[in-house]
Design a protein that fits this description.
It contains 12 helices and 9 strands. The protein is of the alpha/beta class. The strands form 2 sheets. The protein has a 7-stranded mixed sheet with strand order 1-9-8-2-5-3-4, with helices on both faces. The chain has a two-stranded antiparallel sheet with strand order 6-7.
Amino acid sequence: MTPKASKKSRRARKSRTKTASDKKKKPTLAHRAEYYGMRATIGVLRTMGWNAACRLGEGLGVLGYRPFGIRKRVVEKQIAAAFPELSDDAVKKLARESYAHLGRTFAESALFDMLGKDGVLNLVDEVKDWHHVDEAMAAGKGIVFVTGHIGNWELAGAYVAARGVPVDAIARGMANPLTEEYITRVREATGMVIVHDSDAVKRAPRSLRAGRGVAFVADQGVLGLASTYVPFFGRPAKTPRGAAVFALRFEVPVIFVVALRKSNGRFRVIVERIDAKRTSNMDRDVDAIVATFTQHLEKWVRQVPAQYFWQHRRWRRQPPDTPPELRDPSA
């Protein structure tokens, strides 16, 4: 190689490095303020016992409902649409409970790295139908895990990993790179491997071929993400297709998992096998799986409505021909 060519090669390598670096988000002043505020709150939680920290989390969550009113209108309108039989007072009571639940979930999840795997396992005192996971792992073909934003969804993944199942959890990127880096570290402390959703197409096939589990929280429609519209409480809701596509393409089982909080503060983990039939019509098969796991989610939301993440506008994105009476109630 000539000296000229060598310099050109070095310049090319330097250019590639710079491009890769440029793609990494740089935190803004607002990001830093948000991050250090979160870390300060978590720092306080870490000085307290588990129960006290959870109570504080509930209190902080309730403040979001009143007096701050963060997404208050969205939450109340969505609950009223999902449960039209409820009175206004009952809707407001359920909304307040959902904020308390969200605050407690934040507190619990922020402390998982302090608990370790044994501590995570000890949070669960009831498990239903774990044999579905054992059977799927014994087959050695990998598993597609699906859950929704119900109960403590972070615990659902952490518990599966703590039981010794290798899990790659697909996570959406966050606007704040500092927060994203910290939360990723906390999540991975329980044994999960966090995969950015932009890397899912590349990483998920490798994981499934290696007999690992790939986990999706699949109940939030995102602009630009491959999705389908399925009924959720009778209204069409845009729902990601990725979990179903991977399951069918690699012929692995789909397992729905939720971790629901009990009255004693501990958790019940429920495992359900989703029928994943493959026919000559791939699109129809994918839609059937998405509709089925959404039905399972709705079933559990109806049982513990205060433990669902109503703060997200679940019906924000719908087909253009949606009838007026089924459109987004929070619009």
